[in-house]
Design goal:
Elements (H helix, E strand, L loop, with lengths): L20 H12 L4 H10 L8 H10 L15 H21 L18 H12 L1 E4 L15 E2 L13 H30 L3 H26 L10 E2 L1 E4 L6 E4 L7 E6 L22 H8 L7 H14 L20 H13 L4 H9 L12 H6 L16 H12 L11 H5 L10 H4 L19 H4 L19 H9 L1 H17 L4 H13 L5 H20 L4 H10 L1
Antiparallel strand pairs: 1-4, 2-3, 5-6
Helix pairs in contact: 2-3, 2-8, 4-5, 6-7, 9-10, 9-11, 13-18, 17-18, 18-21, 20-21
């Protein structure tokens, strides 16, 4: 949510990102291996500039910079300079909000309205990102005026897609030759028609040529994604320094066609001073120094922002409730001393996320019950000072994963690639359809395809974050469609049937044993005597009704367990 992960560009064109899944896997591996969080930050901002001891480590660092490349993009923007500044603006906004909970992008058009961030600070950071190339790898096409290449990974990184037979590669080469010849014919024909004054024919041929250009772009990308033998290449989205870094001009009102003569030296936010900011050499973009500054233990925001996010994920609300905004327009911390302590402790623990979580979850505060206390409620009705645990609803991924787990269908292995990677380069609605996005999968929800504008139904109905925005805190809604999905969706019905089949047929459970096991699976607790009595009565009535309708007894038992 915080990295606004998605596998398509969004906006008007919505082209696919077939290689975005590498960044997803990188993040999962980083948390699983408890990578120190300061290293995690540095790799995402400047991994391509960091030292690496092996080709595999180099590949990991390159993939990490996908953080800067996976944002939403307006690919049909005709003005290349406007596109460039909009891309940089999105990178500044994501970086400063994700790691510093600071809305620095508000200073693009004017000095920040609330926080002490002048326009000069914004353009100091803009120079850093303008001096970097962002390679997101969408294929050239009529709707995509901003195609880029991808980065070839060293080592033995998996490709995530199937290879192509040599015959298919030869056929693609032949098609490309034909398409280029056809484009030359159409262009020549349109030119000749204009000379003869036949505007209608010229227009018709021009439209046909645009379609051929699309097909040329997609064919070229397929060929570029494989070697001559048809083996898929290991490619990644990412960032790299430009050969000639430069400082950014200040844009009046943030408009690319209205620059001033002033150029701001590349640098950082003055208000977040560490007293020892690294100097940016003239021949470097400054991303490496930016990463060092953000990940520094002296930075007053970085550790506080992250421990606040962890607290929010564990308790349902942060010590600073505006988890993405620590500025004047955000909320003040409810426990400022605790926030300071946790931030310092996090650094002492060598930026270990697992150690931080352990420290919080073994505290008395985290282990409180949700029992109501009238006296405490009178003093603190909103429970801002944590006198009890708040009951919380499962998030979208946990609801889906839990239903798979109790049914015995949950596949804990990691899929290679993603649905979008299999579909390849193209556009949502054509290359990737709604049926593909909602196809039945038993893998964990974190591996579902996340396409902007077309999320899986099992996630979108239960308040999944908008992948075009940084979302440190999800909305919580209760709407009829959620209940209807739980009752009627093919996915939930299949899980119910699988659980019933496992309980009744595979394990041969009946009566009290069946009820006890069902409750343990679904609620992680045994049933009360009252629940046993009511459930037995329900099953008896169900079997009687089934017998009256001539339904087989074993089939009726499974139906009863399913319902």
């Amino acid at each position: 949510d915080v990295a606004r992960y998605a596998e398509s560009t969004g906006k008007e064109v919505n082209a696919t990102f077939p290689h975005a899944w590498r960044y997803r896997d990188y993040v999962i591996d980083a948390f699983q291996s408890d990578k120190p969080f300061d290293e995690f930050i540095a790799e995402q901002i400047a991994g391509d500039l960091l030292p690496a001891e092996t080709p595999e480590e180099r590949a990991e660092h390159i993939v990490a910079t996908g953080f800067l490349a996976i944002g939403a993009k307006g690919l049909n923007e005709q003005n290349a300079r406007q596109f460039r500044f909009d891309l940089v603006d999105e990178q500044i906004d994501t970086t400063t909000q994700a790691f510093l909970a600071t809305t620095a992008a508000c200073a693009r058009c004017h000095d920040h309205k609330f926080d002490p961030i002048p326009m000069s600070d914004y353009y100091a950071m803009a120079g850093i990102f303008l001096s970097s190339d962002t390679l997101f790898g969408t294929a050239e096409a009529l709707q995509n005026r901003k195609a880029t290449e991808l980065i070839a990974l060293p080592g033995k990184a998996v490709s995530g897609t199937e290879g192509k037979p040599l015959s298919e590669m030869i056929e693609l080469e032949y098609q490309l030759v034909q398409l280029r010849e056809r484009l030359d014919e159409l262009s020549s024909g349109a030119l000749e028609a204009r000379r003869e004054g036949d505007g209608d024919t010229a227009q018709r041929l021009r439209i046909q040529s645009l379609g051929v250009r699309n097909r040329i772009g997609l064919t070229e990308r397929q060929l570029a994604s494989h070697d001559d033998a048809g083996n898929p290449l290991s490619l990644a989205m990412g960032t790299r320094d430009r050969e000639e870094p430069f400082d950014s001009q200040v844009l009046i009102r943030g408009e690319e066609d209205n620059p001033t003569a002033e150029r701001v030296p590349r640098g950082f936010l003055q208000v977040v001073s560490t007293g020892g900011e690294p100097a940016i050499p003239s021949d470097e973009s400054g991303r490496r120094q930016l990463a060092e500054w953000i990940a520094s233990p002296e930075n007053p925001l970085t550790a506080r922002v992250f421990v606040n996010r962890v607290w929010s994920w564990l308790f349902g609300a942060g010590l600073v409730r505006s988890v993405d905004n620590f500025g004047m327009s955000g909320e003040a911390p409810s426990h400022p001393e605790l926030l300071d302590y946790l931030a310092m402790r996090f650094v002492e623990l060598d930026w270990s996320v697992k150690a931080l979580i352990y420290e919080i979850t073994t505290s008395e505060t985290y282990r409180m019950s949700s029992r109501f206390d009238p006296e405490h409620f009178r003093v603190d009705p909103g429970n801002r000072y944590l006198w009890r645990t708040e009951k919380r609803r499962l998030d979208a991924e946990s609801i889906r994963d839990a239903s798979l787990a109790v049914s015995g269908r949950l596949d804990l292995t990691r899929p290679v690639g993603s649905v979008v990677a299999e579909a390849g380069d193209g556009f949502v609605g054509r290359g990737v359809s709604e049926d593909q996005i909602n196809a039945q999968s038993t893998h964990r929800s974190v591996y579902l395809p996340i396409v902007r504008g077309l999320l899986p139904e099992s996630l979108s109905l239960f308040d999944f974050a908008d992948p075009s925005l940084i979302s440190g805190q999800r909305e919580i809604t209760t709407v009829p469609s959620q209940a209807l999905y739980m009752m009627n969706s093919d996915f939930m019905i299949a899980n119910g049937e699988a659980m019933a089949r496992d309980l009744v047929h595979e394990n041969g459970l009946r009566g009290r044993a069946l009820i006890r096991e069902a409750f343990l699976r679904c609620y992680s607790r045994p049933p009360t005597e009252e629940e046993v009595r009511k459930t037995l009565a329900y099953v008896d009535r169900f079997l009687e009704t089934a017998e009256e309708h001539g339904i087989d007894l074993e089939e009726a038992r499974q139906l009863a367990a399913n319902t």
